[in-house]
Amino acid sequence: MDISLMRKEYKLKILSEAQVMPDAMDQFRLWFKEAEEAAIPEPNAMTLATSTLNAKPSARIVLLKGITSEGFIFYTNYESRKAMEMAENPSVALVFLWHELERQVRVEGKVKKTSREESEKYFYSRPFQSQVSALISPQSKVIAGKEELNLIHQNTRAMHEGDKVPFPENWGGYTVVPSLIEFWQGRESRFHDRIQYTRNVEGWVIERLAP
To answer: How would DSSP label each residue in 23-51?
Structure first.
């Protein structure tokens, strides 16, 4: 098939300034709830884009694990590639894509680490196997092969079976504090609805963007 001919018309919904909520995080919660109710697989999956100080970008899918008035929370290894890049340059971007609702949400902002207490609380809410994986994985590092890592995982699992897994010092959460959030609703003939929230000292400024 000729990829250039692949097209889909978007007809499900509209998005107007009159219908959105004054606060961008409240609007996100509303759309996220609708994504959950639509039974979209992993509606909390989001692309996280980071960059080094010399503007070399990278992106990957991570899972949203909390929504607060301050921002979007996710967890990872603090020695991973993305963590190293965020330590150099805290400016990041997120993208949520919900095909079934013909919607996407773009976020721009800065990251900051969550408290150790908050990170521990989430860590111990995870399944035992996930706790072990977080403890033993040298995330993003080159390894000789999967067999050696499997053996470490098995031994660590056996060591802590029925016991508390030690909380990894190099693991925890980040909050993406947004400065800009764009809500995109697909429309017919690529005449999409785009509503942008920009944060200022008084709150959020709401504007329409050209499709």
So the answer is: SHHHHHHHHHHHHHHTT-SSTTEEEEEEE
Tens of pLDDT, residue by residue over 154-196, are 888 888 888 899 999 999 999 999 999 999 999 999 999 999 9
Both tokens assigned to 49: 């884009």
Q: pTM for the whole thing?
A: 0.92
Q: Which residues are catalytic?
A: 190
